[in-house]
Amino acid sequence: MWHYAFIVFLGGCCYGILSTFVKLAYSAGFTVTEVTGAQYFFGTVLSWIVVLFTKKKKLTYKQTSKLVLSGIPFGLTGLFYYQSLQTLNASLAIVLLFQFVWIGTIYEWVFQKRRPTKEKLISIGVLLIGSVLAANVMFQESVTLSWQGSIWGFLAALSFTMFIFLSGSVEKDTPPILKSALLSTGAVITVFVVFPPTFLFNFDVLTGLSSYGLLLGVFGVVLPPLLYSIGMPHVGSGMGTILTASELPMAILMSSLVLGEHVGLPQWIGVLIILGGIVGSNIRRRDSEQQSLNIQKSTTF
Predict the structure, then answer these.
(1) In angstroms, rounded to a whole number, what is the distance separating the alpha carbons of residues 279 and 152?
(2) Could you tell me where the beta strands, DSSP code E, fall in 178-292?
(3) Which phi and psi (to 5°) does residue 196 adopt?
(4) What is the DSSP string of 80-132?
């Protein structure tokens, strides 16, 4: 199970890379509408190009529709999160999005009847403490809080959790690359309904935006659904959301290395707490599975 857990962990890291490229695109003068649209457009196009070079599997209309509809929460997450950034500090918006860690456990409990263990609840608490420190919310002089932004941020957490849940439970036998492309298709349709893709008809904007769109498309649209489609069915949505917490440490690391932003000691402590919580959760999961396996063997003999 370790390699499946690592695959989901990498999916979270991909999301953590996005904020750095988004900030670079904004500094280059592009708008939220253009950046969001370009991310999902280029990502979806790249996904289907990869599908062309892979072994095909014929899906029914029902299967295709389920996967495309399952991509709606994928697109909504970006819309909700970027909307929350209009009235909230980036650090606070990240913490609100980070609530997917415990929401995923509730999803698993309600929809899959898997009651959270005490160890998992402790891990979630550790991750939430680490997220507050890593986002530097407590040590900022001014943190802007608005109820509108808070609602958008929490909706982003809900939709992101739903996407993680669906990517691991809908049409599990579909090849991951094809599944990723169909999920991305549902996402780009959702985004274009809200943000009409006018940038596609402006050659100057499109050429300038293409480099950012390709980077955001790869790390925000192509890789996460693909990695989650491979790993989530094996680790479960509850553990999957814990593994996806790697998003925040990666965002902090990228902002320090690429953007040259100052990252204080409390933030690095928060990063270490999050990584420790992820590793600890998987060690306890491995020990629990090994214990169950030993019990089965002893019962058999």
Answers:
(1) 30
(2) none
(3) -55, 135
(4) HHHHHTTTS-HHHHHHHHTTHHHHHHHHHHHHH--PPPHHHHHHHHHHHHHHH
What are 211-270's pLDDT values in tens digits? 999 999 999 999 988 898 888 888 876 778 888 888 888 888 888 888 787 778 888 888
Nearest to 134 by CA among 5, 2, 294, 256: 256
Q: How far apart are CA 62 and CA 162, in angstroms?
A: 20
For 61, other C-beta atoms within 10 Å of its C-beta total: 7
E strands of the chain, at which residues? none
Report the C-alpha gap between 246 and 239 in whole angstroms: 12
Q: How deeply is 58 buried, as exposed, middle or buried, from its count of CB atoms within 10 A (0-12, 13-18, 19+)?
A: exposed
Residue 147 makes CB contacts below 8 A (sequence gap 6+) with none
How many DSSP H helices and E strands does the chain contain?
13, 0
- 185 neighbors 222 (Cβ within 8 angstroms): no
- Per residue in 133-147, pLDDT tens? 887 766 666 556 678
